[in-house]
Structure formats: C-alpha cells, structure tokens
Amino acid sequence: MGANRLEMVQEARAAGLLLECRVCYSDEWLESDIIPCLGGHLFCNECVGQGTEAQVGEGRCIIKCLVPSPAASC
Predict the structure, then answer these.
(1) Other CB atoms within 10 A of residue 49 CB
(2) Which of 9, 45, 63, 71 has the most CB atoms around its CB within 10 Å?
(3) Are 27 and 20 contacting, i.e. CB atoms less than 8 angstroms apart?
(4) What radius of gyration do the chain's Cα atoms show?
(5) Residue 70 confidence (pLDDT)
(6) CA angle, 8 then 9 then 15, to 5°
(7) 8 A C-beta contact, residue 39 and residue 72
(8) Mean pLDDT, contiguous 10-residue spans, the chain (74 residues)
C-alpha cells in the first residue's frame, strides 16, 4: 500500500467514511475501491474481480450479484 493511499485510508477512517465489502467483510475500503451491484450491495474491487473470474469460468455470460443469497433481487 502506497504512502498516499495509507494516508487516504487513515483520513477516511477518522471521518467514518470507510466502507465494507459484502463478500470479504473487510471494512477498510475507500469509496473509490467499491463497486455496487444494481441492488445496492457493496463489493471491493478485489472480490468483484475474483467473483467475475469464477462466474466466467463457470460459463456464465451475465454476471450475477455476489451476495450468496437466493433472495438477492439483483
């Protein structure tokens, strides 16, 4: 993690602006590191990348929400 990014995370933490990923549950993400699904669930860039790879590997051409729930409406 670069010094500038570390400073940004520390500032966001102090301001209560860090976000949590719904897959890895890390709560140290900046808004710029987060991607929402259509249903508003928040995912970090890393989990989106890994989840997309896994779904493409399963032969899917439409990427589904990464929330592991059949009740997910997105």
Answers:
(1) 12
(2) 9
(3) yes
(4) 14
(5) 66
(6) 90
(7) yes
(8) 88 97 96 94 97 94 83 63
* DSSP code at position 58: T
Question: Among residues of the chain, what percentage have pLDDT more than 90?
Answer: 74
Task: Output the CA–CA distances (angstroms, integers) from residue 20 to 23, 35, 55, in the order listed.
Answer: 9, 11, 22
Residue 34 near residue 43, CB atoms below 8 Å: yes
Contact 8, 30 (CB under 8 A): yes
| Domain range annotation of the chain | 3-57
pLDDT at 64: 87
Supply 69's token pair: 């729930």
pLDDT at 46: 97
